[in-house]
Structure formats: C-alpha cells, structure tokens
Design a protein that fits this description.
Chain A: Keywords: ATP-binding, Nucleotide-binding, Transport. Chain A: One of its GO terms (molecular function) is ATP hydrolysis activity. Chain A: InterPro entries: AAA+_ATPase, ABC_SmlMolc_Importer, ABC_transporter-like_ATP-bd, ABC_transporter-like_CS, Mo/tungstate-bd_C_term_dom, P-loop_NTPase, Transp-assoc_OB_typ2. The complex is a heterotrimer of chains A (about 375), B (about 300) and C (about 260). Chain B is mostly helical and about 300 residues long. Chain B has one domain (about 80-305): Orthogonal Bundle (MetI-like fold), CATH 1.10.3720. Chain B has 12 helices and 4 strands. In chain B, α5 (about 135-145) runs parallel beside α10 and α7 (about 170-195) crosses α9. Chain B is globular, with a radius of gyration of 25 Å. By secondary structure, chain C is an all-alpha fold. Chain C has one domain (about 55-265): MetI-like fold, CATH 1.10.3720.10. Chain C has helices at about 1-30, 50-55, 55-90, 95-110, 110-130, 135-160, 165-170, 175-190, 190-205, 210-215, 220-230, 235-265. The longest helix of chain C has about 35 residues, at about 55-90. The chains are: A alpha+beta (about 375), B mainly alpha (about 300), C mainly alpha (about 260). The interface between A and B is small, with 10 and 8 residues.
Chain lengths: ~375, ~300, ~260
C-alpha cells in the first residue's frame, strides 16, 4: 500500500475508499448512525462499568468495541440493545433518542455470545421469532426466512432442531435470526469466541461479506485485537469504562495514543524517554532520532519496522545488540535482542536470507519515521 | 468526573420495578404458606402452653401441664403411659432406621454394579411401591400378617408367637411396616452416592490395605457418608412422626407419638397435650435437619444433601 | 472367586428385597379376586368384589372427591408455584434465605403436625368467623400448601438450567412482556410444568394424613374411605378398590419408564 493512503487513513478515520463505496451501496438500504453522549453505568455500589462514554458511529459502518474483559465494552453493547439502562447520558439511533426505549421496541438486534437459540423451537421457528413478535403474517414470515436462509447459505438446516446443529451452524442461525428482522443496527457480542481457530477465520470473512452486501451498521464486541483489525472500519479501544482511542485499524495499531492502547494492540517495545533534545530522544536503548519527537514520555518502536544487519555497523540510529532468543515462525522470525540491560523485540520477514542465531552480534537499524512517542 | 453527581432516577426506577416484580411473583405463594402453614403451626405451639379446658379445647391460663404429662406426671401422680409412648417412638425410629440402612446399603451398591441400561428400571422397581397409597400398603401387610396366614403359621410353628394370635398387631409389625415404607428413601440417596464413587480411590485402597474390609472402611464408606446421612434424615424424621403404620399394625401397645398426638385432637380430647407432642416432633425435625447440614458441610458437598 | 460369591449373594438379596417390596401389593391384588371373603384362604377366582364396588355409592363419591381435590389443588398450586419458582429464579442474586426456609417448611414438616395444626387453626377460624368449614375447601387449601414447594422447586430448577441470555434474546427480538411469557417462558418450561402437575396430582391422591385431619363429614377421599373401612373391620371390597389404585400406579410407572426412554433416544 502506498504512503498516501496511509496518510489518508490517519487523517480521515473511517473514510477509506472502500467505506465510501459501501456507504453508497448502503444508501438504498436501511442503516442508522449512533450517537452516544455521556453514558454512565455503575453496578452495585462501586463497580463503574462506563464512566462517561461519548461516541459516534456512522451509518453503514463496521464498528468494533475492543478491550480487555471488564473494560465496559459489553455493557456499552447491552445499553445499545436496551438490555441495560444507562444511569446517565443519552443514546440516539437513526436520529431518534432511544435511551429509555425498551429492547422490544428498538430496531436493534443482537447476536449473542452464547447464540441464545430457543431450545423449544425448530431452526425455522427461531428464525421467524422476531418477525412473529412484530406481528408479521405467516406467509410473509416464511418467505423472509427462506430468503435469509438462502443468503446465509443454511437452507438445508432450516427444518432441523436446534440441538442437532454444530457450533458454527448455530452461530450462523443466530446471525440470520437477527438479520431477518432487518434492524437499523446489528450488535454482535463476541459472536465468534466459542469457535475453533479455522472456523473462526472462515466466519470472519463471511461476516464481513454479509455486512458489505447489506450495508447495515454493525457494532462488534471483541477482546481479540487481531479480529478487530481484520473486521473493522473503525475501532474504539476501551479500558476502565473509558474510551482510550477511536480510529481505523491502521491508526490504532500504528499510532496508539497511549501506553494502554499500545500494549493492548500487542506492542511491547515501550521505553521511557529520559532526556529530549529536539527530536533526539534518550532512552535505555541509547540516543535515537525521531522524525517528530512529539511530547509523549514513552517511545514506541514496533518490532516489524526494525532491520537487522549482521555484525557491527556504525551509523545514526544504529544500535548494537546480541540475539538472546529466536522464534522461527516460518513466514517470519521473532527476535529478543539485548542492548545492555534492555531488551528489544524485532520481527523480521523470512525472505530466505540469513537469519541471525542466538548469541550473534547484530546491528539494529531504526527508521526515524517509525518512531513515535506517546503518553502513559 | 464525580459519579455521585449523576441523577439516580433511572436507577431507582429500575430498582422499584424489580422490587415490584419480586412482590408480584413471590408474594402469593409466600402469603399462602404463611397464612395456611406458618400461622397454624404458631397457633399450635401456643396451644401447647395453654391449659386443657372442657371438650379438650385450649384455655387460659398458660401452663406447662402438657409437657409434664408427656414426661410421665399425671393428675394422680406418676403415670408413665405417655413417656412409654415417647420412648417407644424413639426406639422404633432407631431400630427401623438401622434396619433400613442394613437393607438399603447393599441394594444401592448392587444397583451400581449392574449394567447401566438396567439401573433406571431397578430404581423404578424400588420406588414404585411407595407411589401407592400408604394406607393400602399397610393394609397389604395386615393381610400378610393376620392370624392364619402362612407367615403367621410359620412364626407359630417356630414358637415365636402364641397360637392363633397372628403377627399383628405388634411392635414387630410396626417395625416391619416402617422398614417397608422407608426403604426407597434410603436407597435413592445411597445410590446417588455410590454412583459418584471415585473408583480410583477404591483401587488404591485395595493396593494399600490387605483386607477388603479395611479397603471398604477407608475408601468406600467415607465417600457414601453424605448419601447415608441424607437417607437417615429422610427416614428418621418421618418415622418419628409416623401415624398410619402404628395405628393399623401396632394396636394399643404399639402406639407411637403420632398416634398420641392424633388421639388428643379427636377421641381423647386434650389439645394442649397433643400440641406439646407436636412440638417434640418439630424439635426432632429441626434438630435432624440442622445436624445433617452441619455434618454435611464438614464432609463437603453438604448443600445437595438437603432433600 | 470371592468377588463372584459376593456378587451372587447380592443378586439373591436383591430379588429377596424386590419380593419383600411387592409381596403386600401382590397379596392385595390376589385377594381382590378371591371367591370367598376370607383374608387368609384363597378359594378361587371371582370378580364379585369388583361388582360390589360398582354399586357402592360411597366409594364412587370418594373417588369423585379424590379427583376433584387432586385436580383443583394441582391447578392452583401450579399457578402459584410457577410464579414463585420464576420469582426465585429472577431474584436469585438477592438474599432470599427466608423464602427458601418458607418453601422447604411444608416439605420437612411431619405430616401429622402439618395436618393437625391446620385442623386446629381451621376449627378456630371457623368458630370465630364461620369461614373455613371443614370439607373439600379446607382440604384443597391444605393440599395446595404442600404442593406449592414441589412446583416451585421444579420450575425453579428448569429456569436455572436455561441459558440466561435466552430471556434477553426474547426481549431483543421484539417480544413484549406478555409475549415473552406466552411465546418464550411457558413453552420453554412446558416439560417442567407437566411433571410438576403430575407430581402434585400424585402427592394429592397419595396423601392420607393431611386429608384425614382437614376433611369434613362429606368430603371423604378414597384413602379416607379405605381407612374407615379397615378400621370398621376388613372387608374384601377394600382389596378390590386398593387393587385398582395399585393398577393405576403400575400404569403410571410404565408410562414414566417409556417416557424417559423416549427422551433418552
């Protein structure tokens, strides 16, 4: 990908060419934006689940709430669904204030983590449940159920009993049961977390395709940053009931705003800046020059931006290191390097060239444009 | 941001709704039990501390007369009839519970050694007789133990009973009836305990201890103890308060506490005395339940034991 | 070798115990077909006691009473117990120890104490207000009281076994509170409701002591009638009516066996 697009992403989050296209397609379908303002939620006397959340989600967006367990992401989703009432704040969906509207009167549907398929009903009856509750006539119900079953490719499962389905099939039925109601917004609460890795990545692709075809607003909850990056137009990272950062996946991954986001996105190379002269920053690794020094007190070096040269090579932003550990992963290799008392992680693509061994002396080359600083 | 500043209206509204829901669902049943069982029991307890009036109805003033009479002090000095009944009740409870354990323990074990597909049928076979009415079951024993029946004939020829007397009415018949009545109550919890038995422990014990008796005592018995205790409570508490079986199989000399109490409310007519007897049964019930909870907790997994 | 002896001994003991359990029932059924009215000697097959039964108004009315009592009390207990079972589930995170004690009270209270305290209480209330005249009404009240806990516990355990998100899925899929009850909760707990009803029914038919003390002169049920007949002196007719009741239990046992078999399959 060229440099210009990267800049584009960073400057205008959520407005990649792909999204624009999608939104055009979506214009013919139903999709709603979501505006949250000052949402507070507390459980019991002193467990704060949400501590004043302001967030806007655009119509037709695949939006992900990402964070560790207990960060408030599920509470936020349940407030969107109407299953929890916020203690304070307002929620507007599609221009309508729905803060106090009960779930059965909201045009919002949820795919639950446990799928929550009704055990006393057949697959067809499960799919038709929402339409039936809305008072849609039987003939129309059947037609819609058949249509969605064809769309999700589960036509032959429709007449089965729920307990005859596999995990992946249940997941699809749960998705179809929510989609068939044609909600303004679809909420997904870690819908793939119960599946094994292979099925999971297959369903990630499928889910993304469905969202593109329908142009519906999807709000997706996960604790898996890989999944979030694959799926989302934009990601909101939550911690302790607060939003830490909102942005496109590349922005959140490459330009985390604080140490929490950086660590959560999988970055370990964080070093306190002990002295600063313009763009020259001193850390435990030594002195490095960044393109923009910034004002943050932590220096982030992403492992995959580093180059390793064999032996000792002198130069600006060149660090002398010893290989302490090497993890060979086939497509790439991960190194734990020691620079004095400090360790540094580096990831090197395997292009069939020489890979340093444990104990080798190497030179680490750090590009100034890949260095960013952030606050704690 | 200070959280306490947020208006708590939504929150308190939800709490009110939740409390209303609790009231709506739970209140009818709770009120029913309170009005039709808790109040009557409380009234009965009160009666026990009142004096016996004309027609056996309770009267003021309060008195401990009924408890004295239960303990053997009559109007005319020492009259131990009631005390004997009390002792007989305890004795029958003890003996029948012991016998039930002796029969149920091997039966429960045997069921677990059988093929899995037979076990539900075997359990059903044990339980089905208790689905029939207690009066009918006891009536069946009356037929079996009456004078002139083969069983009575056998007992007669062995010299156990006098000629033409029959095996009932007698204390023996009451014990038999109690064992018969409560056997399933002991088999079920014991079976549950045996089914959960950790066989690895048993095999280890067979390695470690020379004799099978010691292996049983150290590895099997402790594991079945919670089930055994549950069974004992399920048998002993209702046995102590039994009315039907001693009434039909026991005759005058086989009376138990249940009959003493019932008589005071019908023919004998002394409500306070009957109520005092009922209090003894209540105490026995709660002591039994409490003891089982305590022991069950100490053994671990005590919660599942309660009914 | 020793193990096999033990197993063989146990098999023998098992069949002895089964014989012990069924002997009194078999005797009752057998003597219901006895040609003579002797309780000791079986003199030949006859259906005369069953014929006598059909003409006995008292038995027919006792049967009717038993049915009215069992069905009415079970229906009332089902409604009240179902509500309380759901309430216990919905509010299980609250401290409801007092409710648990209340629910277990009717189960642990000895029959005789249960029956006598209600009888004494009803008599007092009747003397004071003229309400609660002993009869089918008081019996229904008493039976509902001991049926409620069983219904509540069965319904509660069914709810506990459900995925709690199902309740949220129903809300999420546009079901109003009333529709949630009709289209989700009731159908989902239907098996529990059926077994709760049958258990209540069985408990009611099976009960003698509590019925005996709360009944009035006109409200004798089958067990009360049989009790009275036994007390008056054994009549062979009792064998016939008792045999019919044993037959009903046998049918119920076979039904429950086939039902549980089918569910396993």
């Amino acid at each position: 990908m060229s440099e210009t697009i990267t800049a584009d992403v960073a400057d205008q989050p959520g407005a990649t060419p792909a999204t624009a296209e999608r939104q055009q397609e979506a214009a013919t379908r139903k999709a709603s934006s979501i505006e949250m303002q000052g949402l507070h939620k507390r459980f019991g006397r002193d467990t704060v689940a949400l501590d004043g959340v302001d967030l806007n989600i655009q119509a037709g967006e695949f939006f992900t709430l990402l964070g560790p367990s207990g960060c408030g992401k599920t509470t936020l989703l349940r407030i969107l669904a109407g299953l929890e009432e916020p203690d304070a704040g307002s929620l507007v969906v599609g221009g309508k204030n729905v803060t106090e509207v009960p779930p059965h009167r909201r045009s919002v549907n949820t795919v639950f983590q446990s799928y929550a398929l009704f055990p006393h009903l057949s697959v067809r009856e499960n799919l038709a449940f929402g339409l039936k509750m809305r008072g849609v006539r039987a003939a129309e119900r059947d037609a819609k159920v058949d249509e969605i079953a064809g769309f999700i490719k589960l036509g032959d499962l429709v007449e089965r009993r729920v307990d005859q389905l596999s995990g992946g099939q249940r997941q699809r039925i749960a998705l179809a049961r929510a989609l068939v109601c044609e909600p303004d917004v679809l909420l997904l609460d870690e819908p793939l977390s119960a599946l094994d890795a292979g099925l999971r990545s297959q369903l990630q692709v499928e889910l993304l395709r469905v969202q593109k075809r329908l142009g519906m607003t999807f709000v997706f909850v996960t604790h898996d940053q890989q999944e979030a990056m694959v799926m989302s137009d934009r990601i909101a990272v939550l911690n302790g009931g607060n939003i830490q950062q909102v942005g496109a996946p590349r922005e959140v991954y490459e330009r985390p705003v604080n140490a929490f986001v950086a660590r959560f996105m999988g970055h370990d190379n964080l070093y306190p800046v002990t002295a600063r002269r313009g763009d020259r920053l001193t850390t435990a690794l030594g002195e490095l020059t960044a393109e923009e020094g910034g004002a943050g007190e932590l220096l982030l070096i992403r492992p995959e931006t580093l180059d390793l040269l064999p032996g000792t090579v002198e130069g600006a932003n060149h660090l002398q290191a010893t290989v302490a550990e090497r993890l060979y992963r086939g497509s790439h290799a991960e190194f734990r390097l020691e620079i004095g008392e400090t360790t540094l992680q580096a990831t090197v693509n395997n292009r069939g060239r020489h890979l340093p061994d444990v104990g080798d002396r190497v030179t680490v080359v750090v590009a100034p444009e890949d260095l960013i600083t952030l606050s704690e | 941001m200070s959280y306490t500043g947020v208006t708590p209206t939504a929150r308190s509204r939800a709490m009110v709704r939740d409390a209303q829901h609790l009231l709506f669902t739970v209140a009818p049943g709770a009120a029913w039990i309170v009005v039709f069982l808790v109040l009557p029991s409380a009234y009965l307890m009160g009666v026990a501390f009142m004096s016996n009036g004309p027609y056996g109805l309770p009267e003021m003033p309060l008195s401990l007369e009924s408890f004295k009479r239960l303990a053997g002090f009559g109007f005319l000095g020492w009259s131990p009839g009631n005390l004997y009944t009390l002792i007989r009740s305890l004795w029958q409870t003890l003996i029948s519970t012991g016998l039930v354990v002796l029969v149920a323990y091997p039966i429960a074990y045997y069921i677990t050694t059988c093929r899995e597909k037979w076990r539900p049928i075997m359990l059903l076979l044990v339980v089905v007789p208790s689905w029939t009415n207690q009066v009918i079951r006891t009536f069946g024993w009356m037929n079996l133990l009456a004078p002139g029946t083969p069983l009575s004939g056998l007992a007669e020829s062995l010299g156990l009973i006098a000629p033409n007397m029959g095996l009932y009415p007698s204390n023996f018949a009451v014990t038999l009836g109690l064992v018969y009545n409560f056997l399933p109550f002991m088999v079920l919890p014991l079976y549950a305990a045996f089914e959960k038995l950790d066989t690895a422990q048993v095999e280890a014990a067979q390695d470690l201890y020379a004799s099978p008796v010691r292996a049983f005592w150290h590895a099997v018995f402790p594991q079945t103890l919670p089930g055994l205790l549950a069974g004992i409570v399920l048998v002993a508490i209702p046995a102590f308060g039994m009315y039907v079986i001693p009434e039909l199989l026991g005759g005058g000399k086989g009376m138990m506490l249940g009959n003493l109490v019932a008589t005071q409310f019908s023919g004998g007519a002394n409500w306070p005395l009957g109520a005092a007897g009922a209090i003894l049964m209540l105490i026995a019930t709660f002591v039994g339940l409490f003891a089982m909870r305590r022991i069950g907790k100490r053994l671990g997994g005590g919660e599942e034991v309660v009914i | 070798m020793r193990k096999r002896t033990l197993q063989r001994g146990l098999t023998g003991f098992w069949w002895l115990t089964v014989a012990f359990l069924y002997l009194p029932l078999v005797v009752v059924v057998l003597f219901s077909f006895n040609a003579s009215n002797s309780a000791a000697n079986f003199t030949g097959l006859s259906l005369r006691w069953y014929q006598r039964l059909m003409g006995n108004e008292e038995i027919l009315s006792a049967f009717a009473n038993s049915m009215v009592l069992a069905i009415t009390s079970s229906v009332i207990a089902l409604a009240i117990g179902c509500l309380i079972g759901y309430g216990m589930y919905r509010h299980r995170h609250r401290k409801l120890g007092w409710l648990i004690v209340l629910i277990y009270l009717p189960i642990v209270l000895p029959d005789i104490v249960f029956g006598i305290s209600e009888m004494a209480f009803f008599v007092q209330i009747h003397d004071l207000t003229g309400l609660l005249q002993p009869g089918l009404g008081t019996m229904i009240i008493a039976h509902v009281t001991f049926q409620i806990p069983f219904v509540a516990l069965i319904v509660y355990s069914r709810f506990v076994g459900l995925d709690p998100t199902l309740f949220e899925a129903a809300k999420d899929l546009y079901a109003t509170p009333v529709k949630r009850v009709v289209h989700f909760m009731l159908p989902t707990i239907k098996p529990a409701l059926i077994s709760a009803f049958f258990l209540s029914f069985t408990l009611s038919v099976d009960d003698f002591v509590i019925s005996f003390f709360t009944s009035g002169p006109e409200s004798a049920t089958l067990p009360i009638y049989i009790w009275g007949a036994i007390k008056k002196g054994v009549s062979p007719e009792i064998n016939a009516i008792a045999a019919l009741m044993i037959g009903a239990v046998a049918v119920a046992a076979i039904l429950s066996l086939t039902f549980s078999r089918r569910r396993q399959a």
